[in-house]
Design goal:
By secondary structure, this protein is of the alpha+beta class. It is 52% helix and 15% strand. Helix 4 crosses helix 5 (154-167), helix 6 (187-206) packs across helix 7 (231-248) and helix 12 (344-351) packs across helix 13. It is elongated, with a radius of gyration of 28 Å.
Length: 397
Amino acid sequence: MVSHLQQLVDDCAEQIGRTVTIDDRRWRVAAYSRLYGDLDRLRLDALLQRDLPAAAKSWVDELRLADARAPVRTPPNPAIGAEARLVIPIRHEGTLLGYLTLMDPDATLSAADIETARACAAEAARLIFREELVGAMADRRERELLDDLLSEDESLRRRAATALREETTVTTEPAAAFVLVGLGSEPEARERGHGALTRGLAWLHHHTRRGSAFGRVHANVLQTLIAAPSMDAVETLGRRLLGEVQRHHPRARAFAGVGGRLTDPESARRCLRQATGAATVAARLPRFDAFASWERLGSYALLTRLKVDGTEPLHPALDGLRRADRAGILLATLETYLDNAGDVKATAEALSLHRAGVYYRLSRVQELTGLDVQRDGEARLALHLAVKLERLTGDRE
């Protein structure tokens, strides 16, 4: 549609001799003609950002342009760098699809110019409606394909696997994996979460080859299956997708996880579980910086598979240590020591501490817990698992 819409605005601009732009209903730039004269600061900013600044959107809301049924001349607004312009709502059978805008600072557009612009807006409505209809059908097909691929019903999974091979490039690319982007449960995340995730999916479609990425928004989580030349390329797309969701909802706590390589369509459910595990780690552990890949989780790949009863302490000794170690110094020393496989020198370097200080703290841990992590391998393993599981299931980091 973009090429048809672009041709339309170019033809309209040439006939009128003015710069013509088309924005979608949310004032994101969809197409714009070559320049005729100078643009004001507001339009230049919108073209560079492909979106209106927040102050401009508030001004547009005040003008109630979304309710307009005929061309509207908007007054200049020096505060946001806007000169006077003519805005024509783009509607299909009454439904607002976007806006066609012409700069008109000196009110010299003729009646014939305005009529030409209105005809252009009517044709734009037809093009946009057709594309949205096709897009809605494609979105529905994507959701159906994912639903069936992840279904409990084996016959549905087999049918979806066949469709995946026939309709997408997922099985022909060197690498494919599930990428999940989630938003926190805070009110700020729920407020505009679905819209941000949906825009993220639209961004993914725009930045990947046809048939190489598809997804669905489900329970405040964007579930996508992405095929690319390598797993590194899948991860790169996943990071960019996370950034796009964060851009559309900066107040929300967003996180993402990449599952393991999809070896065949029948492994889809396993790969989705891996992506879910990676996303859980990304959400819970700040050191992953909101993005985690299953192939790089280390021990957390194993721990995400465990079901933990949150009503019982993970390890009584660990619980007692925390009560006695309010500042968390001994626990941090213990975890660093265990992470470094019992290497006192590496632990001391990581904590910027003398080795004697490490030995002293470990002796205090033994006094408080009754466990000798320097000599008892069983105690060391149990405490290490408890610490890691607490990171994963609790709210401490």
